[in-house]
Amino acid sequence: MGSQLALKSRIASTGSLEKIFNAQEMIAASHIAQARELAQDAKPYTDAIFDAVQTLVSHTHISHPIAEKKDDNHRVAVLSLTADRGMAGAYTSSIIHETEALLSRLDKEGKKPELFVYGRRGVTYYKYRGRNLAQTWEGDTDRPSVEVADAISSALLNAYMKPADKGGVSELYIVYTEFINMVVQKVRVLRMLPVEIIGPETPKAAPMGQGASNETHPLYAFEPSLEEVLDAILPKYVRARIHECLMEAAASEVASRQNAMHTATDNARSLINDLTRKLNASRQAAITQELTEIIGSADALNNQEE
Amino acid sequence: MEVNIVSATRPVWKGEAKSVTVPAYAGGMGILPDHEPVLTVIKEGTVIVTKPEGGKLSFEVTDGFISFDSNKLTVVVEQARSLENVQRDVDII
């Protein structure tokens, strides 16, 4: 039976922790609304770029370095998207876990992975372990701006477009957390570069004749030239996809923070309940003991008088 | 024709238009309904939209591209800013 004073102070401190967790949960809930708004605002742009790339794919054969593999180079880039702040449950640790798995897999395939990290937690983790990081970005992981996406994609595209002997890379993998819903988020590895462009879902040309396919795909004019259009659009496409990943990671981060804080609040509450029960039991025991002592001594006095 | 102007951070404007002028790579390029499908790189400049009832809207845009297909024009740019509505009808063309 612990001392009542100690129990009381533990209840008080757990109570204030509970308040903090609860506040964090509410903050996370409000950030989710922000993240959703951000994603909705960026969606028309992303859609427009995806449509344009679809058009390019269905009208021409894309031969551009961004869409084609350079096989001669065994250096690859890995970008892992972690959080800036903790208190998000297993968010960052599962990303790091998956990144490690990917790195060792790439090592086994004889590739030389270079690590790019986004998010303070991930950066701290790797810095502490003395790992060489090619480049890092910090800040705004729960509200990724277009500027951050731009910085990341231009750095990665730079590394990708560089020739192999100057430290270029041949592939880019992104480890991020996919937002499925408020409760479920899944860590995913995506190969971003070279871009795999999926054509229109229904191959219209195959069953129909030549004339029909000409009808469904009117001749497109690309100005000033196809190459320049590709040069302009493909980097934007990569950036839009990276921005999408960032936003999805941000939504997952906020959601997993909300879940973690919700669990923490629940835990704090049940801990307070347990402690209160212990406190009551110990108070009761103290009262019982006092009563026994009083009755015992009264009995002794009575016995003496007789 | 339908016009949709989007920037990287947010949708800017959407609506019907009689004609649109965009800053293409080699100078202004006018687009009227039933133009041939086109995908063009554009540079920094002003996009001018003429509305069906005659009013004009202009937008200051940074680099990007436009795509026109089945009477739908999409202007995709990094940043866009709506300038003051130009209501005078004919004198600016």
TrEMBL record, chain A:
Q: Name one Pfam family in it.
A: ATP-synt
Its Gene Ontology cellular component terms are: plasma membrane; proton-transporting ATP synthase complex
| Topology term for the membrane | Peripheral membrane protein
Keyword Ion transport tagged: yes
Q: Name one GO biological process term.
A: proton motive force-driven plasma membrane ATP synthesis
What GO molecular function annotations does the UniProt record carry, in alphabetical order? ATP binding; proton-transporting ATP synthase activity, rotational mechanism
Keyword annotations from UniProtKB, A to Z: ATP synthesis, Cell membrane, CF(1), Hydrogen ion transport, Ion transport, Membrane, Transport
- Entry-linked InterPro entries: ATP_synth_F1_ATPase_gsu, ATP_synth_F1_gsu
Instruction: Enumerate the subcellular locations listed in this protein's record, separating them with semicolons.
Output: Cell membrane; Membrane
Similarity comment text for this entry: Belongs to the ATPase gamma chain family.
Oligomeric state and partners? F-type ATPases have 2 components, CF(1) - the catalytic core - and CF(0) - the membrane proton channel. CF(1) has five subunits: alpha(3), beta(3), gamma(1), delta(1), epsilon(1). CF(0) has three main subunits: a, b and c.
Role this protein plays: Produces ATP from ADP in the presence of a proton gradient across the membrane. The gamma chain is believed to be important in regulating ATPase activity and the flow of protons through the CF(0) complex.
**Name of the protein described by the UniProt record:** ATP synthase gamma chain
Native species of this protein?
A: Bifidobacterium magnum
From TrEMBL, chain B:
Membrane association type: Peripheral membrane protein
Keyword Ion transport present in the record's keywords: the answer is yes
InterPro entries from the xrefs?
A: ATP_synth_F1_dsu/esu, ATP_synth_F1_dsu/esu_N, ATPsynth_dsu/esu_N
Which GO terms fall under molecular function for this chain's record?
A: proton-transporting ATP synthase activity, rotational mechanism
Compartments reported by the entry: Cell membrane
Q: Where is the ATP synthase F1 complex delta/epsilon subunit N-terminal domain?
A: 1-80
Q: Which GO terms describe its cellular component?
A: plasma membrane; proton-transporting ATP synthase complex
Task: Please provide the record's keywords in A-Z order.
Answer: ATP synthesis, CF(1), Ion transport, Membrane, Transport
This protein's superkingdom? Bacteria
Q: How does it assemble?
A: F-type ATPases have 2 components, CF(1) - the catalytic core - and CF(0) - the membrane proton channel. CF(1) has five subunits: alpha(3), beta(3), gamma(1), delta(1), epsilon(1). CF(0) has three main subunits: a, b and c.
Task: Name the family the entry cites.
Answer: Belongs to the ATPase epsilon chain family.
Question: Could you tell me what this protein is called?
Answer: ATP synthase epsilon chain
Species of the source = Bifidobacterium magnum
